[in-house]
């Protein structure tokens, strides 16, 4: 059974940075493209970044392009999201999951709050 555990969220001021981590288990991690998704209050979950299984390709939502960087370490079954120049509109619960078809079982997510 796939397990995903996100961490690294926090309360940060606008313009600040955070690095999120997602540890995966119960799968051959290197076989799958992965994505970071987020869900803000009252909104649908959206994909913000994705990375190919071999890290060769990364794609970003327009809203985070140039500010966020997705990466992965297949030796540690972990995917990361470096978030710089954070804005209040980045406030959300962040999740990782498979791309393009997420597994049914989501992790608990990690809360990112951007506020002064």
How would you characterize this protein structure?
The chain is mainly β. Helix content is 0%, strand content 47%. The strands form two sheets. A six-stranded mixed sheet has the order 2-10-9-4-5-6, with no helix packed on it. Strand 5 (46-51) and strand 6 (58-60) form a beta hairpin.
SSE arrangement:
Layout: E1 3-7, E2 11-12, E3 18-25, E4 34-39, E5 46-51, E6 58-60, E7 68-73, E8 78-83, E9 92-98, E10 110-114
Parallel strand pairs: 2-10
Antiparallel strand pairs: 1-3, 3-8, 4-5, 4-9, 5-6, 7-8, 9-10
Total number of helices: 0
User: What are the low-pLDDT stretches, counting only 5+ consecutive residues below 50?
Assistant: none
Q: Give me the strand/helix succession.
A: EEEEEEEEEE
Number of strands: 10
Helical proportion?
Answer: under 10%
Morphology = globular
Mean pLDDT: 96
- Oligomerization category of the chains in this entry: single chain
Strand order of the largest sheet: 2-10-9-4-5-6
Report, as a whole number of angstroms, the end-to-end distance. Answer: 40 Å
Radius of gyration: 13 Å
Beta-strand content bin = over 45%
């Amino acid at each position: 059974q796939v397990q995903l555990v996100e961490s690294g969220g926090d309360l940060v001021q606008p313009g600040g940075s955070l690095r999120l981590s997602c540890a995966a288990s119960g799968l051959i991690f290197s076989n799958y493209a992965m994505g970071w998704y987020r869900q803000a209050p009252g909104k649908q979950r959206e994909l913000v970044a994705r990375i190919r299984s071999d890290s060769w390709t990364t794609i970003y939502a327009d809203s985070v392009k140039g500010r966020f960087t997705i990466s992965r370490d297949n030796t540690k079954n972990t995917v990361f999201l470096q978030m710089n120049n954070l804005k209040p509109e980045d406030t959300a619960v962040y999740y990782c999951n498979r791309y393009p078809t997420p597994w049914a079982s989501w992790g608990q997510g990690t809360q990112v709050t951007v506020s002064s």
